[in-house]
Amino acid sequence: MTSTDLTGQQTAAPVDTVDHAAATPGLPQPYRELGLKDDEYQRIRAILGRRPTDAELAMYSVMWSEHCSYKSSKVHLRYFGETTTEEMRAGMLAGIGENAGVVDIGDGWAVTFKVESHNHPSYVEPYQGAATGVGGIVRDILAMGARPVAVADPLRFGPADAPDTRRVLPGVVAGVGGYGNCLGLPNIGGEVVFDETYAGNPLVNALCIGSMRVEDLHLAHASGVGNKVILFGARTGLDGIGGVSVLASDSFSGDETGSGRKKLPSVQVGDPFTEKVLIECCLELFRDRLVVGIQDLGGAGLSCATSELASAGDGGMRVELDRVPLRASGMTPAEILSSESQERMCAVVRPEDVDAFLRVCAKWDVTATVIGEVTEVSEEEAARGGRLKITWHGETVVDCPPRTVAHEGPVYQRPVERPADQDELIADTTEALARPSGPEELRETVLRMISSPNLASRAWVTDQYDRYVRGNTVLAQPADSGMIRIDETTGRGVAVATDCNGRYCRLDPYTGAQLALAEAYRNVAAGGATPAAVTNCLNFGSPEDPGVMWQFEQAVRGLADGCRELGIPVTGGNVSFYNQTGSTAILPTPVVGVLGVIDDVRRRVPTGFGTEPGETLLLLGETRDEFDGSEWARVAHGHLGGVPPRVDLGRERLLAEVVIAGSRDGMLSAAHDLSEGGLAQAVVESALAGQTGCRVVLPEGADPFVWLFSESAGRMLVAVPRSEELRFTDMCRARGLPATKVGVVDPESNAVEIQGVATFGLDELRTAWEGTLPALFG
Amino acid sequence: MARVVVDVMPKQEILDPQGQAVAGALPRLGFEGVTSVRQGKHFELEVDDDVDDETLERIAETLLANPVIEDWTVRRVTVESADGSVAGAV
Amino acid sequence: MARVVVDVMPKQEILDPQGQAVAGALPRLGFEGVTSVRQGKHFELEVDDDVDDETLERIAETLLANPVIEDWTVRRVTVESADGSVAGAV
Amino acid sequence: MRVGVITFPGTLDDVDAARAVTTAGAEAVPLWHGDADLRGVDAVIVPGGFSYGDYLRCGAIARFAPVMGEVVTAARGGMPVLGICNGFQILCEAGLLPGALVRNSGLHFVCRDQWLRVENTTSAWTTRYDRGAEILVPLKSGEGRYVADEATLDRLEGEGRVAFRYVGENRNGALRDIAGITDERGRVLGLMPHPEHAIDALTGPSDDGLGMFLSLLDTVVTA
Ligand SMILES: Nc1ncnc2c1ncn2[C@@H]1O[C@H](COP(=O)(O)OP(=O)(O)O)[C@@H](O)[C@H]1O
Ligand SMILES: [Mg+2]
């Protein structure tokens, strides 16, 4: 095999070919260093009938990793499919298994969306980790044939005042912004959550939405014998190779004196400009119908793209690896196959279209190279999922059934066990915690809550993101959901929200996942859109911990059962395990993204008060004494225990229907869902968003503490123009949705008055709410 | 008082999109013969005389460069020519 | 083949917020004695031997630096030490 | 009336600029960076974005594009040219406008709804506004801090070439709160904030930006 020093000087050593592998069955291979277990290695040998070559070993090891193969989660994720009814599937043009789910939104438009995690890379190198996280999810969406049209970024960090958070958060935010802004994708939502379990394990999830005409959907497959495989975009370099560099190290080169490659950093650097050009180039290729199949290169690089394309097609694939344009000299076949260089795509193209394809690439100054073709396979090979043959200067270095690489990785039934301390945790409720009493303490609690890191304004973050670009953003931060116009003529659009309260999930992962779903669903409805589909990003600790697997199993079941009850399908998602430090896992964090559809974005419902001269405030839903897991319990007592708020998905559905009907009939001038921080938080946010004061009058006999801070689910604060009040409350009554009058908006006032409790100047509230993050992060 | 120059460059194996963009632009502007460009950062520090080399090295490593993706060099500059160009000595 | 280094710095009279941010961060990290920091760009070009000094100067002036706000120096680098640090000569 | 909108690799706001032109009632004509051809347009918009990734310096590479040679010639001949954000940076790099745009003093990219005061109502792009009027448009840039030497700033002020100024917070630290300037003849306008994102209160903070495109119509029609 060839080994190289960092300056690219080649030291002659033969490449490990298939023939060589067959001839040297006993050669020791560093499979453990590459993360493979003994039995997994033996399985590869059994599949191939010989030892793998270095290149094959690189491919299998990265494709059989947890990240690519879902080996610990697969058995559980099946439940999503099992719980999806035909009716739910009706609007789905592509679902789980494709790069991203695709939803028919009407008027001939389809929308695709997906969230993905880039957690660990963002801890190692916050800027580049976050940037390439955005880049990766955007290419996923692009590979569906869609134009990426918006992004969102659910983020989680350690304590806001921890020194490491001061390193990680600004870098992550700058990276998300730096990449997304440069791509010209409006950032329309996300989350920023602080909790000590995320110290050392920040969660950087990135979501992208794409739109296309229904007939333009492209799926990744390499069909049509003779079709060419074209690699285009950035050159392939040594970045992101990480572990595979052991294949080039001394101990395994069989040459004790050779200068092996020192272990490379597994960090990738993003080039958003190249990606922007790649997007435009791809869209032109799609428009000109020059693409038969397409796949993005993400984690696992060419290993993934070639094996997935080949196994999804109807033939085999032959790739000449030496044709791959390189950025570094002396790269080995194994390194080329596992490089995670960003901003690359792989397409299957009819031979007669190759010239036109290359012309489009040249117009955009995008490097494009034919690296192989779709080949004919025997019936026997076809039964095994085709054949992938990769050569290096004429010698075969990979020869395998691609399905065994891409889809037939190991599947584990990991032990699942409810943690021993779960009962203790549930028993430790908030019942005994001291509550504020009297106007003075309540007043102080309001200010302390709205300025706490988890409830304070996110403007420090979101002001670094372009939310205007493309000119279709109708709702963005601060709003319950981001909403964009898809069709400029009809006004049809989509809304998206992501949510998860990891504290609730820690107390009860099943209910917690449903609460995450319920909140995202409610947030989408608050803007006036009809929830239509779900994506998720399941962030958990180590799957080798039976307690974590229990959390995972419970969360998946809760989410899937919840989706069935709400009648909206999960169209895709992503799993991120091993988010833990030592034996301490992060809070179970199944981030749920809900996509909604709105037929005309002009009827969107804003968050801020004051768009109509006279407005009545109504609280929809029921308020119970529910403080376990609440933000108040954290802020006031640093407490986590008990059971999360009750979830009633039937009620969520009704609430959404009423709000959407209100939006359709022009009965609502503002809406804001209640979640962390309860009613007080919602009132403050809506008053500040509209720069309009209000007077809150709680019902007779109400306990102001409970009414102001409880986190009961299934509630929304709405502002109703005076003229619509009767009509709207009649509708609520007729449909059985509790609606309580809790005050009036006062356009003349610069204050939020909570009668009998306190009066706050808008300036005072703004200072408290907006000051926190700038004071922490500059 | 001494002047210290720290140059920070992307590591060889790390992508340098900025350098690439410059290299790509040169031929379009009619400049031939430049085969590669890499772009990094250049810091000029004025430091008290009692700041030792080890401290400078630590400053470079912890603040000026990101060791995960960048290499750096630290030089004390002894001569400053009139046009502002510096002739360095380590 | 020759290596050319171009350093580009913000003009003295132009505010350099990046340099200031670094200077401000140093004491917080426990580094004393650095009285000023300025941040600019550092380019390393590999050029064919037939590229003359005048061309290099034009490359720096028209592309690498913006004369309205920046000063620059161009040096051909003759020695490269083992650790990758360069000792320059104009 | 035909208004050219240039697309460089990395341009982002070309669709928005074209939409604004159309909304104002003119025809938007796409211009490609690689073609040294203005296709007979009456005015040109150099839109926002990250041309060539904004690597090296914002606008530094784009200004050498073939189309820019034509723009410079046409502008010197009096054709109205509007550079927005990255376009403003490109016009400065190209020498059509004095000064430069550098990193925001806070070192962060800033996206916010920004109040501007209209200081000049005689340029090709500002006749529809009242002097001293305040308009609300998005500002979104990482390198939006306008700088020039004192003499240049004094000259700009003296000649009434400061077209727009930031009102209230000046988040990028631009000298003398300058948001936009014109050339000597008032035909070329460079502006950091984005009027093309403020043509409809549905998708922007206001429709205050439309006035710039309507002003152009007046200018060209009466010319
Ligand atoms: N990282 C982020 N990126 C973009 N937008 C964000 C981010 N974090 C929060 N936001 C936005 O800020 C607003 C407030 O966030 P949050 O309080 O989490 O909303 P909610 O409670 O309604 O889910 C929302 O519009 C949300 O989308
Ligand atoms: Mg909400």
Automatic annotation (TrEMBL), chain D:
Keyword Nucleotide-binding: yes
Main location: cytoplasm
Keyword Cell membrane: no
Cell compartments where the protein resides: Cytoplasm
Active site per the UniProt annotation: C85, H194, E196
PROSITE patterns: GATASE_TYPE_1
Superkingdom assignment: Bacteria
Listed EC numbers: 6.3.5.3, 3.5.1.2
Keywords: ATP-binding, Cytoplasm, Glutamine amidotransferase, Hydrolase, Ligase, Nucleotide-binding, Purine biosynthesis
Pathway membership, UniProt: Purine metabolism; IMP biosynthesis via de novo pathway; 5-amino-1-(5-phospho-D-ribosyl)imidazole from N(2)-formyl-N(1)-(5-phospho-D-ribosyl)glycinamide: step 1/2
Pfam families from the UniProt entry: GATase_5
Subunit structure: Part of the FGAM synthase complex composed of 1 PurL, 1 PurQ and 2 PurS subunits.
Protein name: Phosphoribosylformylglycinamidine synthase subunit PurQ
Gene: purQ
